[in-house]
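Researcher: Structure prediction, please.
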Amino acid sequence: MNKHTINTARRGFLRAGAACATVTALGALGRGRLPFSAPLRAAPLAGYKRLVIVNLVGGNDGLNTVFPAAGAAQTAYLARRPGIGLAAAQGLSLAGGPGLSGWRLHPALDQLQAIWNAGQLAIVSKVGYPNENLSHFVSEDIWSSGARNGVALSGMARGWIARYANAHTTTSTGVVSVGMGRKLDFEGANLNPLLMSSAAAFSLKTDSTYDYNHILRVSVLQQNLAEQPAGDLKGRVAAAQQAAHAAAAGVQAARTAYLGWGMGATYPTANTNPFTGRLGPSLRDIASLIYGGFDTRIYYTGLPGGFDTHSAQEPMHTQLLTDLDDALAAFRADLMAMNVWNDTAVLVVSEFGRRNYENGSAGSDHGHGNFCFVLGGAVSGGLHGDMVTQSDINAEYLPYTTDFRDVYRHMLEDHLGHSAAGLFPESQPISKTLSIL
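Model: Predicted structure follows.
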């Protein structure tokens, strides 16, 4: 390759990089081709298993999301939470499914209650990890890396989703994040995962002031990429050119899916509260990508930040859970209309729970064990894991009896049908077999 060829390729890449400024790709240069194979059509892949992870960032108060409404557990709960505890009459019955007849759902979760009554909601209790850490940042990293101490990850990708992608996917769209930025979960993937803020904003934008200038630059970009196909160059320049090809194809596929989306569910949208109204648009985007035929196995999104309820927990918690409830119900309706609900599992997680007792500011502080939700047409509804007892509630915070990595393993192996061997190499003092799917 001569100097002129390298310089021409570099100029082409720089133009592509400027045009693809809204495209986020995470990975190392020089790791080979970055294929992008999402079809430009409006038809979801039939019989294609997918996992959608929804992260309630900040530490959702699980003990007010699912709370005891009878017996000794209720007595302990109300004694420890005299101000923020919920009365039995306020909650929504869980009598329609096995294992939680004496417990209630938060009153904001009426649509999740209907999903529970349909047998399509599993509640996993006391989920966590050994030697709890009460720092948001450390605990988020533990969930993202899939390791408590990280020692066993030497020489491996840091993120557990990246390790999954390296083992089981072959395209940049095998794992996708929407609205969550650069999460550690994706760090180290060999094929640059598709990370977008939103499908609506996912576009080639070269000049926001002059439309005709923008059209001309996009045309030049497409011509440059056509004239210099990915794979004709070598080394870091080749990797950069391949990234440009993948980014341009990704934008085209995502925009086609988004603009062609025509399902009818109504998702909650943003309001004056900065922590709410963000999940609905992200789940709508994921629904549009599914509708567009994306080959994605794991979608990752969430509600960032608002669940750290140290003070004035209500009505913030109610508003957050209302958002969650409305967004999940709309997403389920759209996937049912596409006939892919039975192929989809939605896993709702948070980095830790809250303390069992309320603090002096009508809130709750960082805790440990928590409840996870799993929704889907093939889900075995009801309680999974060990029931929370009176002695659990009388402790400082809920203990963990189900390791979060066992939840992930179950989703990967029994839902996606992919081996989790080697993805979570760290030894666990507690390991449990689940039967949610």
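Model: Confidence is low (pLDDT under 50) at residues 1-40, 203-207.
Researcher: Thanks, that helps.
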